[in-house]
Amino acid sequence: xxxxxxxxxxxxxxxxxxxxxxxxxxxxxxxxxxxxxxxxxxxxxxxxxxxxxxxxxxxxxxxxxxxxxxxxxxxxxxxxxxxxxxxxxxxxxxxxxxxxxxxxxxxxxxxxxxxxxxxxxxxxxxxxxxxxxxxxxxxxxxxxxxxxxxxxxxxxxxxxxxxxxxxxxxxxxxxxxxxxxxxxxxxxxxxxxxxxxxxxxxxxxxxxxxxxxxxxxxxxxxxxxxxxxxxxxxxxxxxxxxxxxxxxxxxxxxxxxxxxxxxxxxxxxxxxxxxxxxxxxxxxxxxxxxxxxxxxxxxxxxxxxxxxxxxxxxxxxxxxxxxxxxxxxxxxxxxxxxxxxxxxxxxxxxxxxxxxxxxx
Length: 360
Known about the structure:
CATH class of the largest domain: Mainly Beta
CATH architecture of the largest domain: Sandwich
CATH topology of the largest domain: Jelly Rolls
């Protein structure tokens, strides 16, 4: 048994959160290691169950805690097999002080949230923020590849748990998931959860977009709506799910007058792989067909790291089409200007859009 596991069981025993199996594991350890059994009295003292007199209680607890930390810190390993290697997650003296304070608080109820050996690796989390004007590629511990679009935040564990592979996405990500039928891959967003076993798909889940989109290219995915967990939507290749991001825009209400998330499943047009607009961003492109200028403007902001300001709100509803590839920003705006009645000016990282003046 490793140091972390021994201390974890001690803490859980004190906090009355240990399961029957964990208590049995601790008892077995203590029976096999008499020289450490006396340290367990610290647990009893902190819970107020020892025979220490009130006048000598604080001094005795301090002595036992110091003795415990010194013995554990100085030991290479505890005298029980099956050592579990766990990354250090806290400072031992800090924990000792915290337990001492809790123990002297007069028996107040509390819970110490220590991680199990499996949870320890799963809860060492990484958070990636991708700034505007760039994209990023990651490779997960299981070999899954994730490409993140500009303005995205991605949270993932250093090591996945034994049962699932959970990640959290705000923004846009393109996933090529390594197949593992026994351990599903789950992408959590603010409105839905995408569950896959091994497939290729794109998730667009920006907080300021009107919809959250899941586009499936290969394999099969299941999508669960957060506000309606019983509803499972299955997508097949070349299908896209769109879920209303703003519930105030929802058309349908239940009998209880509670808004429900509106969703729609559509099929992708039969085009070449490099002409799929939902994944054009992977090649640093923006492909748009009869889309609102307001929605395209958000893509321009992310690609070029700028802010688009509509001086004339009517321009937001103009429908535009086009392809922006490797053009610099000014040239990209000129391309759109050829087919859309607007003019623009650039001031630093701000782009101002206005209606063109009528000319005879």
